[in-house]
Amino acid sequence: MTLVVRPCYTLARSPRIPVLSQPFHIRPAREDDVPALTALYNQYIETTAITFDLEPWTVERRREWFKQFAESGRHQVIVAEQDDEVAGYACSTKFRPKAAYDTTVETTIYVKQAAHRGGLGRALYTELFRRLKREDVHRAIAIITLPNPASIGFHESFGFHHKGTLDEVGRKFGKYWDVAWYEKMLT
Ligand SMILES: CC(C)(COP(=O)(O)OP(=O)(O)OC[C@H]1O[C@@H](n2cnc3c(N)ncnc32)[C@H](O)[C@@H]1OP(=O)(O)O)[C@@H](O)C(=O)NCCC(=O)NCCS
C-alpha cells in the first residue's frame, strides 16, 4: 500500500512555531532504493553514535542486508519519499538469532536531518506497525544510544516503554556510550 501525505502544518517543539512540511509518501522499499538507503545510514554512522557501526557500508553490503525483507512477514522495510528522494526509512529485523525470539522484532528508523519534525518518522512507524499488526509479532524492541531525546520522545509516543539501560556497552569516537532498551507490546 502507498500512503500519500499532503502538506500540513506541524508545531516545532522548541520554539513552538509552525513549520511547513513538504509532501511525502510512504511505501515499501525497493531494490533500487538501496544506494539512497546506504547514503542515509552512512551519514549517521559517520557523524553520530546513534548506530554502533564504525565504518560506512558499501552499497553491495547493503544489498545483502536488503534481502532479509519482504512486503509481508515479520521483517519489512518502508521508505518515506520526498521530492523524489528517500528522506527516511523504518524497518523491522530479527531481534536475536535463536528461534524462540522469532516473535520479537527490533525496529529501527532513520529520517534525514533536514526533514526532522516534519512528520515523516510518525508516518513511517505508523505504516510499519500497521503492517506488523497483520503478522505474528508479539513484541518490538528499540535500542537507543544515549543521549537521544528525539528518539526517546518518538518511541515513547509510539507506546515503547523503557526496560533498562546498559552502561558503556559501546565505544565510538573515543568514548563509551550507554544504551537504553525500549519495548512495545503488539499483541
Ligand atoms: C527519531 C526520529 C526518527 C523522529 O523522526 P521525525 O520525522 O523527526 O519525527 P516526527 O516529526 O514524525 O515526530 C513524531 C513524534 O516524535 C516525537 N519527537 C520527534 N522529535 C522529537 C524531539 N526532538 N524531542 C522530543 N520528541 C520528539 C514527538 O512526540 C513527535 O510528535 P509531535 O511532533 O506531535 O510532538 C528522527 O529524529 C531521527 O531520524 N533521528 C536520528 C536517527 C535516530 O535517532 N533514530 C532512532 C534510532 S534508535
* CATH topology category name: Aminopeptidase
What's the overall geometry? globular
The helix/strand series, from N terminus to C terminus, equals EEEEHHEEEHEHEE
Regions with little confidence, pLDDT below 50 for 5+ residues:
6-19
CA(first)-CA(last) distance: 23 Å
CATH H-tier superfamily: Gcn5-related N-acetyltransferase (GNAT)
* Main sheet record: 8 strands, mixed
Topology:
Layout: E1 3-5, E2 8-11, E3 18-21, E4 24-28, H1 34-47, H2 59-66, E5 77-82, E6 85-94, E7 104-111, H3 120-132, E8 139-145, H4 149-157, E9 161-172, E10 175-185
Helix pairs in contact: 1-2
Bound molecules: coenzyme A (COA).
Coenzyme A (COA) binds at residues 10, 13, 44, 50, 109-111, 116-122, 142, 144, 148-151, 153-154, 157.
Outline the structure in words.
- By secondary structure, the protein is α+β, with helices and mostly antiparallel strands.
- It is built from four helices and ten strands; from the N terminus they run E-E-E-E-H-H-E-E-E-H-E-H-E-E.
- The strands form two sheets. An eight-stranded mixed β-sheet has the order 1-4-5-6-7-8-10-9, sandwiched between helices. Strands 2-3 form a two-stranded antiparallel ribbon.
- The radius of gyration is 16 Å and the shape is globular.
- Coenzyme A (COA) binds at residues 10, 13, 44, 50, 109-111, 116-122, 142, 144, 148-151, 153-154, 157.
